[in-house]
Write a structure and sequence with these properties.
Blueprint: H1 27-31, H2 33-44, H3 47-65, H4 74-93, H5 98-103, H6 105-111, H7 117-122, H8 127-144, H9 147-159, H10 166-183, H11 186-201, H12 212-232, H13 241-253, H14 262-288, H15 293-298, H16 303-312, H17 319-334, H18 354-364, H19 389-407, H20 410-415, H21 426-441, H22 446-463, H23 469-480, H24 491-497, H25 504-535, H26 544-551
Helix pairs in contact: 3-4, 8-18, 9-10, 9-16, 10-11, 10-12, 10-14, 11-12, 11-24, 12-14, 12-24, 13-19, 13-22, 13-23, 14-25, 17-18, 19-22, 21-22, 21-23, 21-25, 22-23, 23-25
């Protein structure tokens, strides 16, 4: 039998009795079974399999050999610490897909006696998760109707200038990215806006052979989209999953407190984001818009190209969707205003939440006709196949872990040794919180970092007699908005790095001063505007005169 006879072919009356149904093994493989055994060993002893075993192994080591505290909650605290080690080892190493790891509390918590199956399952679908789900559906509608591209092209036409003004063009593209990121999560914003930026840059000569001024401007635009995506996410609760994790943990740890509403966060996050964005624009202009850049770019770009691209998108048929989006923002902003000026939620005795509004508006997308085709709606469920269920599961896991750390008593045990922080001034510890959280998130998942850090910061705040939001907010914002250094820090950074216009040195050169400026701005904002906002939430039975002495 020759070599070609070893494989399955279409049988005919002539060869039907000769053709084997399956490929035959090579004689060498039969004569040398140790080769296949060696390959089996190699497939077993891999780094990924080691990381898979690392989770349960570390958990059981803690279960059998670690003793935490004393009393009836000692075993539960030990079990919770073991489960935390298991989950976070899988999250950090990504030995198991992150959405699968995010589901592990559903079976680990009941098996280790931390919570009942019903209790842990409820954390995976609450008002915050509903807010995320509705926002994702709205984001898919934005993508479907090319709202992002129309907005970007129109604003670019306005800011392009005549003659071409590179700083204004940067401001237009980055400002558009900032605005879109306020209402969409960072990753979809980067995925949507990066093609808009690279579409403009495609008119310029690429590679090392291009003019130096043009290449520098290309770097600046790509970096601007990356960082504007992260900064814009500070502004609103829906801007990034980290903000939602913060809200969920606040609700979990302080159930009697007034929840952090969309409006409350916006009045703090938006001014802070504007300040950091202004610093970003100054840094980009300083490094990437040198003298003579305008003349170098004018050779390759004019407004006629942008107008043609806008015309190719055709007539906008989603006007009703645009109005609906504006209604959503207004309802979010006015649900709860202040204690003296209640929002429209008072009509429903405070039973509605931001998730209520988000899901209601998302539902209307499947009811309102698109006005273009008969019986067609603005959205149909087939367009929702791209819903990022992994992120939703990750948020649910974060809320489950936060609830487990609190109810098991582990948070109190971990905070017992933090008494030395009682005399540390706030202006010293707030930048440290940003720095530590931002450093960890350069190497691990942003949401995972937030889930790990926030419960500890709550205990630190209690030890310092400080309002918990004074540390929770810097910890959360530092976990993603200040992940500016490495390309792997966030998916948004990966999107920009993959364009080929930037390298790690560019990110370090731009990201390092931006990170420092962000930490300074956040440290200044929290004792001022942040203090006003946090005082609107509730009285946490904390002596605020003591808090004020630490701040001052």
């Amino acid at each position: 039998m020759n070599h070609s006879d070893q494989y399955l072919t279409i049988p005919t009356p002539e060869n039907e009795s000769k053709v084997p149904l399956l490929p035959l093994q090579e004689q060498d493989t039969i004569d040398h079974p140790q080769l296949s055994f060696h390959s089996i060993l190699k497939s077993i002893f891999t780094a990924n399999n080691f990381y898979i075993l690392l989770g349960p192994l570390s958990c059981f080591l803690i279960f059998f050999y670690v003793r935490i505290g004393s009393g009836p909650t000692s075993a539960t605290c030990r079990n919770m610490l073991g489960v935390l080690t298991w989950v976070f080892s899988w999250w950090i190493t990504e030995a198991v897909p992150m959405p699968v790891t995010s589901m592990s509390p559903l079976f680990l918590f009941p098996l280790f006696g931390i919570a009942t199956a019903d209790d842990v399952a409820k954390t995976y679908m609450d008002d915050v998760i509903a807010l995320v789900l509705g926002s994702f559906i709205l984001a898919l509608a934005v993508e479907h109707y090319n709202v992002h591209r129309r907005l970007a092209l129109n604003i670019t036409l306005i800011f392009c200038g005549e003659p071409l003004n590179p700083p204004l063009l940067l401001l237009g593209v980055c400002g558009t990215t900032f605005f879109v990121s306020m209402w969409m999560h960072n990753t979809p914003t980067a995925v949507i806006m990066m093609p808009v930026a690279t579409g403009i840059l495609q008119r310029f000569p690429a590679g090392e052979d291009g003019p130096e001024l043009v290449r520098k401007f290309c770097k600046g635009m790509v970096l601007g989209v990356i960082y504007a995506t992260a900064i814009g996410g500070i502004s609103t609760l829906t801007g990034t999953g980290v903000n939602l994790i913060l809200v969920g943990m606040w609700k979990s740890y302080f159930p009697d407190a007034e929840p952090i509403s969309f409006a409350t966060w916006f009045f703090f996050g938006f001014p802070l984001a504007l300040v950091i964005f202004a610093v970003l624009w100054v840094i980009l202009c300083f490094f990437y818009c040198s003298k003579g850049t305008s003349n170098a770019l004018s050779v390759y770009m004019d407004k006629a190209h942008l107008r043609r691209e806008l015309q190719l998108l055709g007539k906008f048929v989603g006007a009703l969707f645009g109005i609906q989006k504006q209604m959503l923002v207004v309802l979010w902003m006015t649900r709860n205003i202040t204690d003296d000026i209640p929002g429209w939620s008072i009509l429903f005795n405070g039973r509605v939440g931001d998730g209520t509004v988000s899901v209601m508006m998302a539902t209307l997308l499947f009811i309102i006709p698109d006005g273009k085709q008969k019986r067609e709606k603005l959205m149909d469920w087939s367009k929702c196949k791209k819903l990022p269920w992994g992120i939703i599961l990750l948020l649910g896991a974060g809320f489950a872990i936060a609830d487990g750390v609190r109810t098991s008593g582990l948070a109190d045990v971990l905070s017992a040794d933090l008494g030395f922080l009682e005399n540390v001034p706030y202006l010293a510890i707030a930048p440290a919180v940003c720095l530590i959280s931002g450093f960890i998130t350069e190497f691990t998942s942003n949401n995972s970092t937030t889930t790990l850090v926030l419960p500890l910061l709550i205990q630190v705040a209690k030890t310092m007699n400080l309002h918990p939001l004074y540390l929770m907010v810097p910890g959360a914002i530092g976990a993603i908005q200040f992940a500016y250094i490495l390309p792997t820090s966030t998916p948004s950074n990966v999107v920009g790095f993959s364009t080929g216009h930037i390298d790690i040195n560019d990110m370090i050169k731009t990201g390092l001063p931006l990170k420092v400026a962000g930490m300074v701005a956040l440290t200044v904002f929290m004792p001022s505007l942040g203090k006003f906002q946090s005082s609107l939430l509730l009285n946490l039975n904390i002596d605020f005169s003591i808090c004020q002495s630490y701040i001052l």
